[in-house]
Design goal:
heterodimer, A: 487 residues, alpha/beta, six-stranded mixed beta sheet, 19% helix, 31% strand, globular, B: 235 residues, alpha+beta, four-stranded antiparallel beta sheet, two-stranded antiparallel ribbon
Chain lengths: 487, 235
Amino acid sequence: MKKTNFKRIGLLMLLLFSISALFVSCKTDKQGSNELVWSADPTEKIVGEEKAILTDPPMVPPQITRKHATKVIVELEVVEKEMEIMDGVNYMFWTFGGTVPGKFIRVREGDLVEFHLKNHPSSKVPHNIDLHAVTGQGGGAEATFTAPGHETVFSFTALNKGLFIYHCATAPVGMHIANGMYGLILVEPKEGMSKVDKEYYVCQGDFYTKGAYGESGTQPFDMSKALEETPDYVLFNGKVGAIAGDNAIKAKVGEKVRLFVGNGGPNLVSSFHVIGEVFDNVYVEGGTLVNHNVQTTIVPAGGSAITEFRYKRASNLVLVDHSIFRTFNKGALGILKVEGEKNTTIYSGQSDDRIYQIEGGTIQTMPEEAKLAPKAMNKEERIAKGKQVYVSNCQACHQADGNGIPNSFPPLAKSDYIKGNSSKAISAVVNGLTGQITVNGKSYNSIMPKQSLSDDEVANVVTYILNNFGNEGGEVTPAQVAPVRKK
Amino acid sequence: MIFIEGGTYVPLYDLIDSGKVKIESFYIDKYPVTNKEYQVFVQKFPEWQKGNVKAIYADKNYLQHWQYSDKLGNNTQIENSPVVNISWFAAKKYCECQGKRLATVDEWEYVAIASETKKNAAKDLAFYQKILDWYGRPNPKVMPNVGKGFKNIYGVYDIHGLVWEWNLDFISALSTKDSRNGNNLDKNEFCGAASSGSKNPSNYAAFMRYAMRSSLKANYSQPNLGFRCVKSIKK
């Protein structure tokens, strides 16, 4: 290259750089001297500084006890990573802090929050954050637009108390939210919140995958299903069973429980309900209005609610979206395990029958289309494939440990009902089961819907059950399934 | 290089059909620029070596995956992988020293709208989904070689599915930092708003590219961002 030419290019580049530098400086928000200064309470001063404790769901940071406003430093890292959306099914989640929902943030009314958003260098795309607790441009989204491998900082004063959703607002916004980029920030009132025994963080979201619910492997985001608002999964805390089975949240009889409930969306509004419990207090939409004696509270997409209750009897309380097909067919089911005394005067076992009445009094027929799946070649494969079928179709009611839910769903573990007679198990799966049965000495009177599964899938799942949960073992083949089906 | 015959296309952010953008014919590199090719460049122009480059032209991530300032080092398996961790200044300079230039956003998108079988796959949802699937996957640990993946109808490789690519005017079509705030911008240049007000709201894949470009500054270097060059046709 000729020297003169080279010089010219250099000059051009310098010019371009200064244009670019100008662009950069235009983006910096400089505080003008004549700017009005607002604070939540002009008499309240910011005293000291602390780093926010951020927690993974379903845990929440400890209640705030200080009596003054402070500067709170929040450091949140955006990580794009593959995680299980259901056992055996992977999804490429985008997260605030490595979890879905993102980490729980807890500050006090009047606090000055210095927010650091870090986008991990391995990220594919830029991200930002809109905290609904922020009064300001884009809720902070404009200030935090962050390329992969960069960190941005802005600060805001928590003017309004309440429970607020935060989420990513980078184009395409819907996709960022659908990939799990949402969470909750609580702004405690300056007078503090009443003391409770247990606090939990539950956040609903709807997910759109290429494969149908339960289809194994790594599932990509499905844009057209998201546009149609027809999710495959509706979940509490980002995974089927995230707060059920071994992961159930816990309390003891007599304890006061507070649930911080959020709904990231992107599309669905939640009818949040806890089966067998009436909320003593609901902070409606996560704000200041308190309602009492509420059965189901609506949680808008991009909204929240705080529910409080004291439970008086040992039970497994079932957290659901009472838009109920989501619960039993798309995964929105959680368990609050209340341990302690069973007070039969207050509650009889029959109150839990409501679950079935909601669904109607007859056996439900699922669509008849049988799914095609690779066939199991031996018993081990049958058990492995059976587990996937179990997780997708049975686990919500019978639980991951096969113990069922007392008074509602009979146990499969060490079940004397199917012992020595696997065709009873096959029949329950292919034909459904209704009426009173006795399992391990306890009687159940409920309805199991007929499952739409191929002979192979039925053979697999029954074999899985026979070889797990302390049952006697054995193998069921597809050939044994066909004759049991009622024609 | 591959000859791209000019024509018109409707950019993502356009609101009315009359806003078709005219593209003159041009040539485009068949592959993104590789580590090996870039190595030749920095050996010829030492001011663009890792230790020498001025901070205003490239941030500290510049060529971070290279072992030495002037060469890749032991990691020879990525010799033919696209060079990444390159700032816009460096990419622009590289092309100029080849007698070429970076593609404009319009030129790049005009090529990127071609699928394996169609020059204009703007209505092909399956094609979009394929691109989106790539955007949804994590960056690979080892960057694959160029020319092994997607090839469009022109014979241009890897325009999708390998790395993001720098454009000459990469911030000309803004997705605002808060992509839902369109009020303060020229509407024709605004594409965010969760796709409202856009010509083709189903083209989420392109939104991702506009958002990505908007997040960049000219001195940024990123592990998934490379480039290729184009050449105008002399009249």
